[in-house]
Design brief:
The protein has one helix and two strands; from the N terminus they run ββα. The chain is α+β, with helices and mostly antiparallel strands. The protein has a two-stranded antiparallel ribbon. It starts with 12 loop residues before the first strand and ends in an 18-residue tail after the last helix.
């Protein structure tokens, strides 16, 4: 996935679809970018699948690897 605003920028975004557990993983280099990406994914899912129930889990890397 390439986002035109990020070309030439140090910000990074990664979107992975995991069909085995019906999840979408979004990884971003900044919290603001993560918020925007998650809102976009949520809006898209709600517009395409209005009866679908969504849950969001935000995970932050921990220095000890947990």
């Amino acid at each position: 996935m390439q986002i035109p605003n990020l070309v030439g920028s140090k910000q990074k975004i990664l979107v992975k679809l995991l069909p085995n557990d019906s999840s979408i993983v979004v990884q971003c280099s900044s919290l603001g970018l993560l918020r925007d990406a998650c809102c976009t994914v949520e809006e898209m899912a709600i517009s395409l699948f209005p009866s679908l129930s969504l849950s969001v889990k935000v995970l932050f890397p921990y220095t000890n690897g947990e």
